[in-house]
Design a protein that fits this description.
Layout (H helix, E strand, L loop, with lengths): L11 H14 L46 H5 L5 E11 L5 E11 L4 E8 L2 E7 L1 H19 L16 E9 L7 E15 L2 E8 L5 H4 L14 E5 L1 H10 L2 H16 L11 H4 L10
Length: about 290
Amino acid sequence: MKCIKKVVFVTALSLVLASCASSKNEPVKSSENEDSYEIPAFEDTYSDDNDDYDSSTEISNKNIKKKSSGNFFKDLFSSNFIVMGDGSLFTTKVFGGLNQTACDFVLYPKKDTAGFGSQYMAAYYYITFDDQNRINYTGAMNRYFKDFENKKLSRDDRKSFKAYGKVNAYIRWGGIKSNTPYFAQKVPVLLGYKFVDNSPYFTITIDSVPNESVTEGINDVSDVVFSTRLNYFFTKAQCRMAIDALSKDSIENFYQQYERELYGEYQSEDEYFDDSEDEEVEDVSDEE
């Protein structure tokens, strides 16, 4: 993160002039939660060197946080989301701007999906993907990294919010995290990027969709009929956390840890020997 350096002059007049010039010409000081870069004079370029990514915060296969009911099969075959770990992302505020919020990386065994959940304004939303859509989702993040490094992101591209294509997701939502009765299946999710206050973010855009719990008659018609339009924003560090947490290796490792908690350590195979293999063969050669 670049810090604006204050140049100290000998005289008080010079100090005042330098301060005024700095306030007019220097870029706005970035927070530690955004990707900053220098604004060029004539073209859209930015530096990848300023990405404050702390590898110590990355979710690794060895330290995924486990949060469950304590019963593997109860969680596995229930409608509950199983939390693998936590992270953060940005959502839009009611009156504009971005709001950083915590998120959980989750498994949803009932649909065999994985993704994330977070508060979004007045409701809590889970966005999950099956295997192929999850691969495409994290693959889009990697394409964003390359475009960032190769300086191919454009501030003027009005279609940048769908630059990396579309995937489908299963979403659930409700008033609180532990109660999400509303859902929609095969929801189109647009993947792209957007500049906010001169900083680029990887974006997920989900239009408002019908609440299928209403259309299928599961809940009363008086319940919520449509979901909120959702706009999620990720810095590169937040993208890396999502990629790591939702990788095939991380998910398989999580299940293995979960099973070990239930069964304890066990051998992967049993060895078996015939009696003949245990007998020692004596040397019966004649002595001269």
